[in-house]
Amino acid sequence: MKTAVFWGCRILTSQYAYEMSVREVMPRLGVELVDLPEALCCGDPVKSVNDFAATYLSSRVLALAHASGAEHLLVPCNRCHFTISEAKRSIDGDRKVSEKILGMLREEKLEYDPNMRLWHVIDFLHGAVGLKRVKDAVAKPLKGLRLASHVGCQIIRYSDLGRVDDAENPRKLDELIGAVGAETVDYAEKLDCCGAHLMLSHLDTAFSLAGAKLRALQELGVDGLVVSCPDCGLMYDFKQKDAAATVGVKLDVPVVYYTQLLGLALSIKQEKLGLHLNQSSVDKLLMKVPV
Amino acid sequence: MSLVDLMSMAKPNLESRAKIFSKLKGRDLVNCFQCIKCTSGCTALKLLELKPHEIEKLANLGFVDELVVSDVLWTCVTCLKCVQRCPQKASPYHVIMALRNLAVEKEAKIPEAFMKAVSQILETGMAEAYQKISKGTETFDRESLKLPKICSPGEVFQTLFLKALEEK
């Protein structure tokens, strides 16, 4: 299946582990990824400044995906996925917007395709690749691991837009974790936000939000937290120390991307999955992975 | 300063209110019946005292000019729970984003990071700055990790993006 992939800024500029693990696992599941080198920002931070300009940035990503010859577009970032989804709705449903946008795209000889199918890693693996295929590909089941899932906000809300999973009871990520042989726990803070957007305006609050969730998970004694969004990865993994300092507790929760976990179950080398880049104590989790 | 303090001397401005309604593109702000579901589930309520139902009410009443200069607009985490749970499809998140857009149009004071992101996109194509990752004594970047190079934006794109930013 030929699938265009749009990484977005956060993955390309710091969350390399997510990028590396997606690049490693997808081909092993029969997915041919096509990069869109000319794609730039999706428009997310611009939504607060000028909605039309954000729509334009998203439309450009969709048009570049179309130009690559792919019919599917994989967007591993939650915020990019939401921004592009809203832009798509705006272009498809508002003639005035679409006329302007299509005209602007033409200046770069780009064309908008309303039939481009948008995916996130979670629904792509769960639906397009299929849970069964993921399960069948597992070479090394991660038995004995007790993990918590964090799907993030913008791929599950708001349902009217057509999202990746149920807004109040998302299960797909848990099922995918189950498919690699690990166990997941349900916890009260599951739907709590990581706070990444507030990094733009209220740093302390952003860290408080991330820290509160990590503290709850630490008390639950899980072996790790599984994320699937580069913003959540940034907050829980890269900024765990800042979060700990803000909430005033020592935090030591291993945080991994789902595709890193899947890669381990597919017997891919740890370095290829970027596991040496995680800033949280992933060694603690890796020690429990069956050899 | 709380929003209520801001209102004590305020008068509704129906022209600004109309601007917000046009930005909402048919989302039913006017149907908000103050059930407070948005505020009761708001991620930013506990820490930053964001009360989306107040914003809905004030926007409905036309106190838009006061909202536009208020810091409270920038406390939203964009978790979208309010949009999901609103029984009236009055979309507090979208009202907040429309107000943010109007704040920029009216050149109100907004958190620096947003305009910085815009200029960075113009310059590098990315809203985030490129980072090297350190772990222990080692440092990694795209090159050492053998990841493909990132492209820079072309002039045509820059012109188009600037044009898009002028749209109201």
Chain-wise SSE layout:
The complex is a heterodimer of chains A (291) and B (168).
Chain A: E1 2-5, H1 9-13, H2 16-28, E2 32-35, H3 51-67, E3 72-74, H4 78-93, H5 95-106, E4 117-119, H6 121-137, E5 146-150, H7 172-179, E6 183-185, H8 203-220, E7 224-227, H9 230-238, H10 240-247, E8 255-257, H11 258-265, H12 282-286
Parallel strand pairs in A: 1-2, 1-3, 3-4, 5-6, 5-7, 7-8
Helix pairs in contact in A: 2-11, 3-4, 3-5, 4-5, 6-7, 8-10
Chain B: H1 3-7, H2 14-23, H3 37-40, H4 45-48, H5 52-61, H6 64-68, H7 81-85, H8 92-105, H9 112-124, E1 133-135, E2 138-140, H10 155-166
Antiparallel strand pairs in B: 1-2
Structure, described:
- The complex is a heterodimer of chains A (291) and B (168).
- Chain A is of the alpha/beta class.
- Chain A has two domains: 2-119, Up-down Bundle (Glutathione S-transferase Yfyf (Class Pi), Chain A, domain 2), CATH 1.20.1050.140; 139-286, 3-Layer(aba) Sandwich (Rossmann fold), CATH 3.40.50.
- Helix content of chain A is 47%, strand content 10%.
- Chain A is built from twelve helices and eight strands.
- In chain A, the strands form two sheets. Chain A has a four-stranded parallel β-sheet with strand order 2-1-3-4. A four-stranded parallel β-sheet of chain A has the order 6-5-7-8, with helices on both faces.
- In chain A, helix 2 (16-28) crosses helix 11, helix 3 crosses helix 4 (78-93) and helix 6 (121-137) runs parallel beside helix 7.
- The longest helix of chain A has 18 residues, at 203-220.
- The model of chain A has no long low-confidence stretch (mean pLDDT 97).
- Chain B has 168 residues and is mainly alpha-helical.
- Chain B folds into two domains: 3-105, Alpha-helical ferredoxin (Fumarate Reductase Iron-sulfur Protein, Chain B, domain 2), CATH 1.10.1060.10; 117-166, no CATH class.
- Chain B is 49% helix and 4% strand.
- Chain B is built from ten helices and two strands, in the order αααααααααββα.
- Chain B has helices at 3-7, 14-23, 37-40, 45-48, 52-61, 64-68, 81-85, 92-105, 112-124, 155-166; strands at 133-135, 138-140.
- In chain B, strands 1-2 form a two-stranded antiparallel ribbon.
- In chain B, helix 5 packs across helix 8 (92-105).
- Chain B starts with a helix and ends with a helix.
- In chain B, 42% of the residues are buried.
- The chains are: A alpha/beta (291), B mainly alpha (168).
- Chains A and B meet through helix 1, helix 2, helix 3 and helix 8 of A and helix 7, helix 8, helix 9 and helix 10 of B.
